[in-house]
Amino acid sequence: MHILIIISISELFDDHFSQARLFWSSLSTFEKQDFVKTFSYHLGKVKSESVRQQNANMWINVDKEMATTIAGNNGCY
After folding, report:
1. pLDDT tens across 37-59, in order?
2. Phi, psi of 31, rounded to the nearest 5 degrees
3. Contact criterion met (CB below 8 Å) for 46 and 52
4. What is the mean predicted confidence (pLDDT) over 21-44?
């Protein structure tokens, strides 16, 4: 019985992106554009290309088009 509870908690814990996907899909087109513009600006201030790339890779888990745009805006491909 305890093993099933631990496994269930573990599966829920591994879900890092469903809330972010839900939030992203709830935004209007204008809000999405503003989010990408703002995030791209702030990410562009990061000196490490590796960190910028890792962030772009992470956003793919939320929305591929958004992640591609953010990556392109910051020289990551």
Report:
1. 999 999 999 999 999 999 989 99
2. -65, -40
3. yes
4. 96
